[in-house]
Amino acid sequence: MREAGKLPPISVYNGARTTEKGCVAYAKAMRISALTLLIGSCVFCLGMAAILRAQTAKPVPPTPIDKKKVELGGSPWDPDWDRIVEQALPAEMLSAQVPKDVLRFCPRFYEMDETDKRVFWAYFFQALAGAEAGLNPTTSVQHTEPDVTKRDEVRGTAARTEGLLQLAYADKIRYGCDFDWQTDRKLKAKDPAKTILQPKNNLECGVKILVNQIIVRHKPLLTPSAYWSTLRPNVPSHLVFAKQMTNPPASCGLPSKSKIDKSETTQSVQDDANKGETPK
Question: Taking the complete model, does pTM exceed 0.85, yes or no?
Fold first, then answer.
């Protein structure tokens, strides 16, 4: 007989399954199950958030060159590239720190919500890629012009511009871009496996370069010191970029008769603007 007031050993309850050792194991199992459930819930929530973002993402309108490539049966701009740009944008690119000349392309920029601003920047980089590389991600150009040719300190040779935004391996040093010359040097010039030609690496690098120009250095979008000649006023190649910027998102509020300076556009763009039509 046990003494009055004392409980029997835990091993007495529920037979062999309720020994003290069994209870400890059961408690551990319960903690593991709870942790597993928590992790599963987090994964589910993150997945749902990603789905909702995809569902609420606004389409980016095509640039004139993209529409023309589709008409001719060429390879169009990949919408996934828009998402790359939108996700790479830092908060400063959605703020009042963006220089005022953005209004020439997007009059309502400062009034738009962040989603619409991301769509605008995605269009901007599509236009830039159209002007720089014809939207071809494997474009690789060896320049010979004195005002363009520079020595690439990574390659150790005259710079070659590559990819959608025509970048160089030296940009890895200047802007922290994800390019690997030691790996790429073993591949052919236009091999899509090259790190510099991969759209994600190329576009993310382009965002870093533009952030450096307009946020870090406080320069306007269009400036003689721009990385890309297509963003330098009074340079012939700028006219190509200006033409690609004539079909921005509707949220920008660009009127059918564009406010873009006619002196900085091609005659065909001027004619289309006068007709109130989008250039083809």
Answer: no
